[in-house]
Amino acid sequence: MGIGSMLIVCIVSLAMGSVITLQTALQIESGWIPAWTVGFVARTSIVMELCPTIISLLLVGNLGSRITAEIGSMRVTEQIDALEVMGVNPASHLVLPKVLASIIVNPVLCIFSIAFALFGGFATVWLTGCISTYNFIDGLTYCFRVYDVVYALTKTCIFAFVMSSVASFYGYRIEGGALELGKASTQGIVVSSFVILVLNVVITNVML
Amino acid sequence: MIEVNNVSKYFGEKQILHSINTQFEEGKVNLIIGRSGSGKTVLMKCLVGLHSPEEGQVLYSGREFHNLPENEKLLLRKEMGMVFQGSALFDSMTIEENITFPLDMFTEQSESEKHDRANFCLECVDLVNVNKLYPAELSGGMKKRAAIARALACNPKYLFFDEPNSGLDPKTSLLIDELITKITHDFNTTTVVNTHDLNSIITIGETISFIYQGHLAWRGSSDNILTSDDPTLNDFIYAQPLTQRLRKTL
After folding, report:
1. What's the pLDDT band for B172 if we cut at 50, 70, 90?
2. Is residue A155 part of a domain?
3. By the number of CB atoms within 10 A of the CB, which of A141, A161, A179, A184 ranks highest?
4. Which of residues 23-82 of A touch B (CB under 8 A)?
């Protein structure tokens, strides 16, 4: 679960890193501000906010809707009823593995995302020459704290839990047919995204 | 034997089942019949524990299913097999994996034992060389038979079929009916079939419970169903022109 999203995560991260770097370089073009600030600001934005949050929101649309559709179609086609009649707990059999897989895989995707976003920033600097690559790398490594990465991964884990559990909930409680399946997927995405955005504020307040 | 004592079921304010009393006998094909929306499926779901009745009892050989402790309920569930209307095979598993799934969950059998059991169950339903296929690759009739094979995997004492003939052509329906009768008699299961297929009613119904608007309106067998004087049952049985012509000959 989630490995199939690697390509889209890498493409989005590459573009995001590139744009953030370019925007920062354009906004702080001043003799008073050292050039390495571009790398510093880009790194901080990418590691602490953009990758954990944007990638989680991306995965809500991609993975979350898939989880809702998968569990929902199992409900509609009575496969969940079949599990219950067999004496298998459908929640633990279907939902728990998905939640655990998301909590394990999403941080891995986040690390890839950070790497690709930083590479996107570096490539932009190298291609456009807005600042020197030396200054950019200097900014990237300036005041680097491992805690920032821990903070990013902690957020990603929490968002992964929210995404998979909300998506599973909406899939599990479907009653009806294909129309309900579509509605449930949309509701799951909306609710997950909203909860993630609210939690982002809360976690930032608590951890920083 | 399964005994249903005064079972009532409500969805919100609406009462779906009204004090149903009936019995499903061991080693026999027991039918629940009735029009669409009469409460047949709700009754069957109450039997297998997918719904809990608000009133009444469902007794499996004297054990009250809905009030059993969870561990005993689980043991009882292992004695049940159910074939759903749409077969409900797990899409992501092959046919063999579908059949061995309950064995994976509840037995300590080795892979070769499970493989042998899957082949035995598939032979019972006359399906061969489908072990590695996925449900999407099978026809409707084959899916039904694969679902029956899965229901047989744990050697159940109680077998439930929810509209086993729906969506099947008459010839395949006959094969499924024959299969249900054969399995019931070969394995001495208490088989409960939920159907409104007239051919099934006449050919395989050893006991028949007719549900009308949530009430048990009539109980009998295929021997006396065509000569019943119950007006609601006759409305149901002789609804089609073909059966109306049959009635004139009786």
Report:
1. confident
2. yes
3. A184
4. 73-74, 77-79, 81-82
Whole-number Å distance between alpha carbons of A132 and A144: 20
Write the pLDDT tens digit of every residue in B67-119: 888 888 888 888 899 999 888 999 999 999 999 998 888 888 899 999 999 99
Residue A181 inside a domain? The answer is: yes
* Three-state SS letters, chain B: CEEEEEEEEEECCEEEEEEEEEEECCCCEEEEECCCCCCHHHHHHHHHCCCCCCEEEEEECCEEHHHCCHHHHHHHHCCEEEEECCECCCCCCCHHHHHHHHHHHHCCCCHHHHHHHHHHHHHHCCCCCCCCCCHHHCCHHHHHHHHHHHHHCCCCCEEEEECCCCCCCHHHHHHHHHHHHHHHHHHCCEEEEEECCHHHHHHHCCEEEEEECCEEEEEECCCCCCCCCCHHHHHHHCCCHHHHHHHHHC
Q: Rounded to whole angstroms, how far apart are CA atoms B221 and A191?
A: 53
CA distances from B34 to A51, A178, B16, B208, B239 (A): 58, 27, 13, 10, 12
Indicate the DSSP class of residue A131: S
Question: Rounded to two decimals, what is the model's pTM?
Answer: 0.84
Domains of chain B: 2-79+160-249 (3.40.50.300), 88-155 (no CATH)
Residue located via tokens 């999403």: A106
User: Of A78, A87, A88, which has the smallest distance from its Cβ to B86's Cβ?
Assistant: A78
Give strand pairing partners of B218.
Answer: B210
In Å, how far is A134's CA from the nearest CA of chain B?
51
A208 belongs to a structural domain:
no
List, for chain A, all residue ranges whose pLDDT scores fall below the cut of 70.
1-2
Nearest Cα to Cα of residue B23 among B2, B45, B49: B2
8 Å CB contact of B50 and A85: yes
Does A84 touch chain B if contact means CB atoms closer than 8 Å? yes
Count the domains in chain A. 1
Query: A7: exposed, middle or buried (C-beta count within 10 Å: 0-12, 13-18, 19+)?
Result: exposed
Q: Which residues of B touch A (CB under 8 A)?
A: 45, 48-50, 73-74, 77-78, 80, 82, 84-86, 88-91, 101-102, 105-106, 160
- A79 with B78: Cβ contact below 8 A: no
Domain extent, residue A131, equals 3-203
d(CA A82, nearest CA chain B) in Å = 7
